[in-house]
Amino acid sequence: METTLTQEKNNKLKVHIETWGCQMNVADSEHMLSLMKLQDYQWVPNADDADLLILNTCHIREKAKHKVMSRLGLLRQRKESDPNFVVAVAGCVAQAEGKKLLEQSSAIDILLGPGKIKELPRLVNEFKESRKKQVATGFAKKTDAAEETEEEFPITPVPLTGKNEVTRYINIQQGCDNFCTFCVVPFTRGREISEKPANVLKQVEQFIATGAKEVTLLGQNVNSYGHDLVEKGLLTASADGPFVDLLKEVAKIESLSRLRFTTSNPHDFTKPLADLFRTEPKLGKHIHLPVQSGSDRILAAMKRKVTQEEYLERLRWLRDAVPDISISTDLIVGFPGETEEDFEQTYELVKKAEYSFVFSFAYSPRKGTAAARFVDQVPLSVKTERLARLNALQDAATLAQNRAEIGKERIALFHYKSKKEENVYYGKTEHFRLVRVPSGRDLLGMELPVLIEDANKTALTAKLL
Ligand code: SF4
Asked: What per-residue confidence (pLDDT) applies to 238?
């Protein structure tokens, strides 16, 4: 009897991936999906229908780990009733906790660190053959990374269901060498290892071939991209540095409309990079440049390797290049030892910097980081009160900046259609502001001039011009 596509489809093993955390995890999940599709798995939108469930985890805050543990708790029952159901825990919690996690939850069959993604198919097959728990954590050594990356992208990473294809993420660098005292990333993602430019360009072309108009190049410390390749004689860079060289190469790809990158570190942010915003229109008019604190004393305790004045100098470079550039940042309040005076310096910096928006967090100690061992931890009530003051200040500034857009013409790249409102599309302006546009036409993936008619703290409303 002829097996129909659906029957064939129904016979295929099914995979579902739940992703927590940053865009780097989204890109890793897409990569894992593409690897399992090579093993003839098919994506299912619902975890209950999956034969293989991958939890791609984040370790940036304690709360994130608890979420994973409670999710595993919910899976134990299914694990006991369905022996063919396989659970893999990937990402930063897998790397940070390692084998201990297997003792904490019997629901886990496979443990996979961010540095070992390529081993997923082998681990799944070995678990199925041996029924023994499989663990692959640790990172590629700086010495051997470059050779390994050749066959990095066998097929185009597949967007996870529900994620649109207009904007895509590419991990161009693993890890970070900075060791800021509050951060777990160097422990969960290892040292900086850059992807070869040829692979990045190939990836961009693959994404454009599947409809992408915008790509975001990702790294924990993306500005230091390529230095490891130069050190090993695997890449020759111009005086502007390997990251600026890469951006120029990617921007040459004609059918790419917008090119973005994150996350920048002010210490590694250079003048040639700021100047590129003047000459390369595809970079748009927005940059995310985390500062974390406005106090030089706290910046030193965080080992951020910049002072407030050096940070403000980077903002001046950017505003010289693009006078109306919108700038966003990350801020931590309540870092150990932070006095009211230190906080005031952060508060004043936010006023001076005129951010378009700010991601602000109360400091949470992360096991294994230097700051978690600092004695003068700030009481939660003080952190909460300072965070509220800072958010009130920035919310008012964001609203004022958004309302100042009313009456202006902007160019919007449309990312998705609203699920809640009929014939309404959402996109981002060149300043990376969210814009909502009612339209009977399908605007997905289009880059069009719009007139801003209204604004609130989170989004602008516009009409097509
Ligand atoms: S630069 Fe960023 S990723 Fe690297 S240690 Fe500092 S905060 Fe963490």
From this structure: 97
